[in-house]
Design brief:
The protein is mainly alpha-helical. It contains twelve helices and three strands, in the order H-H-H-H-H-H-H-H-H-H-H-H-E-E-E. 65% of the residues lie in helices and 8% in strands.
Length: 356
């Protein structure tokens, strides 16, 4: 009797357990799963494929290096000639050809994986590749002594020697897209656009051209732009890899990667400071130019002259301005200008462009 009772109780427990499991499965199947970009296996690139795409230390290393250096040298030559000729189309073509993004992404992935060998080799390629691009620009500049490689006369140089915080924001966004393209198959087609947006080789060519002309200030500005782009790719790449849960090597753990990420954040802050200073200076310069132009326009309008160009130079509320005005004689009377210089400038020069 006791045995029979125990068997009945056990059967009841078994039935209850089966019913609860079935109910649990029904609830699980009926509950919608939250979308997770980290679990999207359909479009995920395997870790082996990511390594193969950006690392060089494989059995075919010589072939990979030959491909890299051939494209880099050709891209640097194309970009330098495009910058020297002030041709945006030629520079864009060089951006698409340039392979410098590969070792930069390799450096980033090696940081995430704790792969010291590939980190050192990829970083070495970035440094030597950057040096080669600068050298090509420098040699090109020395071979063209009559050319004026300055921001005042060349729009391709002018657009790369005064980086601002807006450049940092754009570089961070572009770096994120480039890293997502490394992880996801359905985003890989955007890589040519990333290469154009991030602009790696042309700023280095500008460094070389500026140094050949003895313009150290422009060279430092272009080098700052490259450093900004480089740091942005690394930082956003590490963040994207963590979002997609790219695994790390167990023997290294998270500590080394966290230290590397903190070092990158420090680099980003160091880069952001001069970018912020440049942004403020450019804003103040544009405000001074706008103010001076309006004052000169008010003075020249009765004589039917108009200001064509207003250029301010200086920094930190110490500016001099040159305004070019155009019109037909008679010339405006300079005695009618305000006795005190407008817009907090120290010097004002007016150039007359006579229209006969």
């Amino acid at each position: 009797s006791v045995m029979s009772h125990n068997l009945e109780v056990d059967d009841g427990l078994a039935e209850t357990s089966v019913t609860e499991q079935q109910y649990g499965r029904e609830r699980e199947s009926s509950t919608p799963k939250k979308p997770s970009i980290a679990m999207d296996d359909k479009n995920r690139v395997s870790l082996d494929d990511m390594r193969d795409a950006v690392f060089f230390l494989f059995s075919d290393r010589n072939q990979r290096l030959s491909h890299f250096w051939t494209l880099l040298i050709l891209a640097a030559i194309i970009a330098t000639s495009g910058i020297a000729g002030d041709s945006a189309a030629t520079v864009i073509g060089a951006m698409i050809v340039a392979p410098l993004m590969t070792p930069i992404l390799g450096t980033m992935l090696a940081i995430v994986l704790g792969d010291e060998a590939n980190f050192l080799f990829s970083f070495f390629l970035v440094v030597t590749g950057a040096g080669a691009a600068i050298l090509i620009g420098y040699i090109y500049g020395l071979g063209s002594p009559d050319a004026a490689f300055s921001a005042d006369s060349n729009s391709q140089i002018a657009g790369r020697v005064n980086p601002r915080l807006t450049d940092l924001i754009g570089a961070l966004a572009t770096g994120a897209v480039g890293s997502v393209a490394l992880v996801r198959k359905d985003v890989a087609a955007t890589l040519p656009g990333v290469a154009i947006a991030i602009s790696l080789v042309p700023p280095l060519n500008v460094v070389g051209l500026a140094l050949s002309a003895g313009n150290v200030s422009d060279a430092m500005g272009a080098l700052l732009l490259f450093t900004t782009n480089f740091a942005s790719i690394l930082i956003m790449g590490v963040i994207v890899m963590f979002i997609y849960k790219v695994p790390q090597k167990v023997d290294h753990g998270n500590r080394k990667c966290c230290k590397a990420f903190l070092a990158l954040m420090v680099l980003l802050v160091i880069v952001a400071v001069p970018l912020g200073v440049t942004s403020v200076q450019i804003r103040d310069q544009l405000n001074v130019e706008s103010c001076v132009k309006s004052v000169v326009d008010a003075w020249a309008e009765p004589y039917r002259w108009n200001s064509a160009i207003a250029v301010a130079q200086g920094s930190y509320n110490t500016y001099s301005a040159t305004v070019t005005i155009a019109g037909a004689p008679p010339f405006p009377n300079q005695d009618d200008l305000p006795e005190t210089l407008p817009c907090n400038i120290d010097e004002l020069q007016i150039r007359f462009l006579s229209e006969k």
